Amino acid sequence: MDQVNDSVVTEFVLLELPQSFGMWCFFCFFFSVFYVGIIFGNLLIVVTVIFDSHLHSPMYILLANLSLVDVGLSSTTVPRIISDLFSGCKVVSFHSCMTQMFFIHVMGGVEMVLLIAMAYDRYTAICKPLHYLTIMNSKMCMTLAIAAWTIGVIHAVFQFIFVINLPFCGPNNVGSFYCDLPRVIKLACRDIYKLEFVVTANSGFISMGTFFFLIGSYIFILVTVRQHSSSVLSKAFFTLLAHITVVVMFFVPCMFLYVWPFPTKSLDNFFAIVDFVVTPVLNPVIYTLRNKEMKLAFRRLSQQVLRSREIT
Fold it and tell me: Residues with Cβ < 8 Å from 75, sequence gap 6 or more?
């Protein structure tokens, strides 16, 4: 951390989003409403899974962890954006920028592993239903959840070690509305070719490899089920469609953000908004819209709340 004090740059300039009063109103409304939706929708899933004993199964425990991660991932950027919109401030301190990058990659790494764990859970449930309770027991579920958070932290620390010691002596314009590795390391006052490769390999190539692995695993599940029963295939297809949608919405922006050299800032910001705002607010809808167990659990929870109010 002593290297930080030697840097000339002590703050970074973020991209100013609104170009007019109309656009300012749109962005304020968009980010505020979506963030409220993210917090309410995802925490509702977490609370429901915790307090409803019918949902104490691996599938829903992993889903609750995913919802918790979505809240964390969105909270690394959206509150700051809303604050900057109302205050007009587009400057972030060096340490705040580093902290934001660290937690973005912690949450991103955790979500990546959780999606793999959820794919394994669906594979076991659909392809090996008789052995599901034996394989996906409570110990295995806890192991997968702990592994996801551990790998997420390791993934972030590995890249953070390289970035925290970089010298920054100007310019300090990040060119985006949030701090992230590909944009910040370009401002370092040294040759960053090797570091760019590390970031691309650690975030970009891993995202790409995980994406194709998950899509391939879902296709394998559908092909396997197709050999047994068409009715089971139909049910499995609709179940996996939700998972595939989430995987595409999470990984495609990641691959573009960390692999593709953006020609324009607008495309960069579009994919960032999809990852930090759109996907976290849609995940609760995608996973619960066609899930009867979650709908019944929501009703039971609401009835318990109403009864408790009547008693008081």
Answer: none
- Is the pLDDT at 111 greater than 50? The verdict is yes
Q: What CATH number is associated with residue 125?
A: 1.20.1070.10
In 3-state terms, what secondary structure has residue 290?
coil
Q: What count of other Cβ atoms lies within 10 Å of the Cβ of residue 96?
A: 14
Total domain count, the chain: 1
Residue with the larger pLDDT of the pair 67 and 1: 67
* Cα three-residue angle 90-34-298, rounded to 5 degrees: 150
Report pTM.
Answer: 0.87
- pLDDT for res 295: 83
Residue numbers of the domain that contains 8: 2-311
> Hey, what are 293's tokens?
């167990």
Taking the C-alpha atoms of residue 213 and residue 35, their distance in angstroms, rounded to an integer, is 31
The single-letter DSSP state of residue 15 is P
Above pLDDT 70, what percent of the chain?
91
The reported pLDDT for the residue numbered 200 is: 76
* Kind of pairing between the strands at 91-93 and 11-13: antiparallel
DSSP secondary structure code for residue 11 in this structure: E
3-class secondary-structure state, position 173: strand
Q: Quick one: residue 175, left, alpha or beta (phi over 0 = left, psi -120 to 50 = alpha)?
A: left
